[in-house]
Amino acid sequence: MVDPAVSTRRTRARGSESAARSEALQRLKSLRRSTDRRPEPNIQIKLSDPIYDSVPESDYAALVARRRDHFGDFIVDDGDDALGYADDGREEDWSNPNGSESRSDSDTKEDSKKDSNKKKNKKPAASATRKPDPDPPQRQRISSMFTSAVFKKGDQRKGVSVAAESIIDDVLAEFMLDEKDLEEARRQRRGSTRPSSSSINNTVSLPVPPDPLIIVQSENKELESEEVPEAEMVVAESNDGKMEVEDEVKLEVEMEKSGKVQLLLNAKVETDKDENVASASDGWREVCREEGNVGGEIGGAEAATDANAVECSEFDLSSDGSLPFYIIDAHEESFGANLGTVYLFGKVKAGGTYHSCCVVVKNMQRCVYAIPASEETYSQVLDVQKMSSGLKDEIRKILVDFNISKFSTVPSKRQYAFERSDIRHGEHCVLKINYSFKDPPLPADLKGEHFCALLGTHSSALELFLIKRKIKGPSWLSISRFSNRSASERVSWCKFEIVVECPKDISSSETPPEVPRLIVAAINLKTIISEKHNTNEIVGASVICCYKAKIDSPMIASEWKRKGVLSHFTVIRKLDGGIFPLGLVKEVTNRNLKAGSNVLALESSERALLNRLMIELHKLDCDVLVGHNISGFDLDVLLHRAQACKVPSSMWSKIGRLKRSVMPKLTRSSFLYGSGASLGIMSCIAGRLLCDTYLCSRDLLREDSYSLTALAKTQLNKNRKEILPHDIPVLFHASETLLQLVEYAETDAWLSLELMFHLSILPLTRQLTNISGNLWGKTLQGARAQRVEYLLLHSFHKEKFIVPDKVTARSEVLNTTKRKVVVGVGGEDADDLNANDIYPEKEGQQDQGKRKKGPSYFGGLVLEPKKGLYDKYILLLDFNSLYPSIIQEFNICFTTVERPDDGGIPNVPSSRSVGVLPKLLKELVQRRRMVKSWLKAASGLKAQQLDIQQQALKLTANSIYGCLGFSNSRFYAKPLAELITERGREILQRTVDLVQNTLNLEVIYGDTDSIMIYSGLDDIAKAKAIATRVIQVVNKNYRCLEIDLDGLYKRMLLLKKKKYAAVKVQFKDGIPYEVKECKGLDMVRRDWSALSKNIGDDCLDMILSGRTCEEVVEFIHSHLMEVQKKIRNGEVLLDKYVIMKTLTKPPEDYTDAKNQPHVQVALRLKQKGYSGCSVGDTISYIICCQQDPSSGSSGIAQRAILMNLRAMTTIG
Predict the structure, then answer these.
(1) 1050: part of which helix (H) or strand (E)?
(2) pLDDT of 1092-1122, one tens digit each?
(3) Among 250, 519, 614, 632, which one has the highest count of C-beta atoms within 10 angstroms of its own C-beta?
(4) Dihedral sign for Cα atoms in the order 133, 139, 143, 149
(5) Cβ contacts of residue 555 below 8 Å, gap of 6+?
(6) DSSP 428-488
(7) pLDDT tens digit sequence for 749-790
(8) Which residues contact 603 (CB under 8 A, 6 or more apart)?
(9) Which residues lie in Basic and acidic residues bias regions (predicted)?
(10) What is the rounded CA–CA span in Å between residue 387 and residue 398?
(11) pLDDT tens digits, one per residue of 681-719
């Protein structure tokens, strides 16, 4: 409560000030209106009482003497140890910054001071008072500058009116507040806001331990001379960077609860920068500096033309009148009135250029197969018609009961060969049922008198469209009949939109034209943590666009960094309750004028920022959104903030290409790594591909860390500066630092774009999608299981097989809910269902906790190794693609293998008709051989691309076996997986027996698909001859299986199963060279520091060097002693102590978080707003020593620190 008396006093003070101000203004007004500039006789200047008197020197000396006599002994002297307090009678000089001198000063100093005081008290005759000293330049107020200017100008005038105006100006200056005062007042009001008691309590109760105080021991004397501040006060930092000291009572409590531990970093800090590594920001500035390379016009000349011009354009049709359409993405709604409508997104050519187009495919029909209950085989058409009459009547009655009035039924022949025990394998005369997707699906477990099962009840419209129309990934389609939609009727944001009433009017193009180039936009958001809501808030967003991205081949830097291909745009906003720093608006205006368009925009709020960002993305009409961890963070934050800020649907829906009125459910249904973006996010961006360089790099690269900083260093050879969310508000204090933030955001977006081109992500994923026939967007999200699923769906549909149903949580909810609607148990209509109630969830999440790791049957054979150090040549022979080769060799397929009733391992099939799986694998193997042949003649970037392709084909082939043994796979078949692994064990054992018994060679180790043979020879030519002989003997026993020489080792240390180190001999242009290879050793683990790995490498190098045992032991002992000495002396570089460990689940879900160092670091980082702390992220940290052991030891986890090694500032 505010005291009324205080309030009254404040009101009266304001009133007196206002009255004085008004009176002064009236006097000024009357003076300026008067024509007579002579002084008026009635003007009186009221002077205040004098502050001090001006007296002669003799009178002042007498006054000082009287004071000494009267007040000199007001403090009793304690003798020799007295403090010397006394009054010497002189005036205190408060202008002296050092204060008054004590009585203990020397006589000389006292005498000089007396002389100085005498001189000060001497006044000129013309002046009656002493003027105050002027303020320092940095502390002068703006108003004082104006006042001084008025006085200088007034010196040229004559008359008393000048003096009067000067006096009035002085009076006004006392009451007026200048701009700087206003700004300081606003900052003080914001800075003085104390946190509420609830927020303080929340801060204290957080389980995350505080950041320890880090003390770095350095050899730099300047650093050692600096005092380390002790944590004597608890301070709270406000938004504008000002520090607020807590109360004294609170200080003691916080110090006791926080228990900060001083930790010691006894290591050498490397301050010199690597000259071979460029700065990422410098690289972006260089790209911008090159004239014309980077434009600022979003949606400019290289983008699509103006919308009005597009409306008037006509499609470039084929000679037969059909429309060529290049499909990029496809989408279907999972609920609502548009259920069953398929939306295709891609490119069409109009007016000689490519534009975005949406194809709305209507009238999709469900396709359900009713399997007859009779086991008799009908081979004649008349018998089929007779058999189906009773089945038709029963199905018709069931459909009517389910309120399905329009449907069609037709008998047809189909085959079934999968794992449902209630359906006979082989050919069936089934009843094919078609009806609209507007009607509810039939229950999957429905059975009747004339049929034993229904298949295909929950197949999606999109799946049926892709499979039946034989569309395999991004490709050219031919649309024979279509109708245009006007702008007012459109449901998408594309330049063109057409409607196709019949899905059969769309087919794959037989003569495809050139592959169009895509528009790619890289996005980076800069966020802060809201202290009020504890959520991420967006303060800046940068977009860098490439208008001509190739998708059919790799794109080198000179192609996408050339003139007219790139553009950029950044928008930033004010912090809540804050203002932009002085000079920023002028700098932004200059930048935009220099660029010729808006490359930098300022907004007043987060809502305005989001609206501006969506407008610019809509102008771009981009096909691909790129970002690092854009799936797991950027898009999630962007859409949640749009929801929180109440951004209208006409704006936020522009993040994708479908117009929406309601935002889908954004809650992640799975936090497992590899799940990518949630289904709600994917629905929002439907029509645009999502390229997450974080997810793609994990699939394509093997690195210790997949952060943007680490990948920029290892892949792009650039150093990236990382800005944490809690550091961003400080950058808003000055224009220079805020423009640095803009540069950091643009640099991060540019690095994501460069990483995408460097890894050739778009061409590679496009090719993988063309192989599998699934959606390109799913491939970009790392959906390997779906790739294999669609590969098998296309293959089995081609052979007229009924595929197994895909049972998901969504289908179960739909099945149960729809059944309630029909029977009337729930009492609600299907159209009234909430989207959140039936939204699809990730597969396998329900049984995630109970599911066992790995298969429930025997895997590959691993022989017991003959441990030891081998100093002669060792041969490593490996079967090429063992499991895919076994499938081909023994014709193992769903269609050929007979499953035993007891669930045991089936026998090798005797059928000579080749199964579907062997055919498919043969095609993949042949394609991989072709790519490998091209790889031999390629070099540079092309060689890297081809190597990735052949690895992708190999993984796809091996994944077919994986889907057979994965219990949540749609094509799960445990008997087939067991048969394949059993054949693999037999083949490996037979090969070992053949080599040892027939060729009399020693096999020292074997693992699944490879064996190691000790040759006992020093001659490399003779060792290779042995390998050739083994290959010939083994391969002649098989038709598809091939063993080949995979490695030649000069020396090897074989420790145990799957663990060895060796010197491998490789050849380049016929010339041998040696490399060290380590498999399974602990030193290759990421959770070992670089120091440990280096020690292990040095020891291994000596062990494998070929020296005597005594020399090796002596070297290892001396080397370990030397390393120990460097560690104790602090000579080891700090980054050598860094340990990396991956989060396998959210840090909050760890039950033993207190004992996990990387979890503790992740919790601290997450509290500060760092986004790289989710499942699958790698945490880098250092374990520090405790400086004061007497204060009680702290655990290793509490002493784990994540540090920015370049800036030497704690960030974790």
Answers:
(1) strand 1043-1056
(2) 888 988 999 999 998 888 999 999 999 999 9
(3) 632
(4) positive
(5) 549, 757, 760
(6) EEEEEEEEETTSPPPPTT---SSEEEEESTT--HHHHHHHHTT--SSEEEEE-S-EE--GG
(7) 999 999 999 998 998 899 889 989 999 999 999 888 889 999
(8) 571, 572, 573, 574, 609, 612
(9) 102-115, 839-849
(10) 18
(11) 999 999 999 999 999 998 888 887 888 999 999 999 999
Q: How would DSSP label each residue in 519-531?
A: EEEEEEEEEEE-T
pLDDT tens string 848-892: 444 444 556 788 899 999 999 999 999 999 998 899 999 999 999
* pLDDT of 562 strictly over 50: yes
Residue 571 burial (CB count, 10 A): 25
Paired tokens of 385: 């018609």
Q: What's the CA gap between 741 and 747, in Å, rounded?
A: 10
pLDDT confidence tier of residue 497, bands split at 50, 70 and 90:
very high
Residue indicated by tokens 């083949």: 987
Give me the residue label for tokens 């180790």.
1005
User: According to the model, what pLDDT value does residue 99 have?
Assistant: 44
- Residue 965's H or E segment, with its range, is helix 940-965
Nearest-angstrom CA–CA distance, 1160 and 260: 15
Distance CA 1121, CA 293 (A): 56
- C-beta separation of 332 from 340 below 8 A: yes
* Maximum separation of any 2 CA atoms in the chain, in Å: 143
Residue 559's identity, in one-letter code, is E
Task: Report which of 917, 918, 926 is spatially closest to residue 950, judged by C-alpha positions.
Answer: 926
Question: ∠1000-1002-1007 over CA atoms, to 5°?
Answer: 125
Q: How far apart are CA 688 and CA 684, in angstroms?
A: 9
pLDDT at residue 966, as a whole number: 84
CB atoms within 10 A of CB 29: 11
Burial class (CB in 10 A: 0-12, 13-18, 19+), 452: middle
**Quick one: tokens of 1112?**
């090796």
Q: What is the C-alpha to C-alpha distance for residues 970 and 968, in angstroms, rounded to an integer?
A: 7
Partner residues linked to 479 by β-bridges: 323, 506
With b meaning 16 or more CB within 10 Å and e meaning fewer, what string describes 230-251?
eeeebebebbbeeeeebeeeee
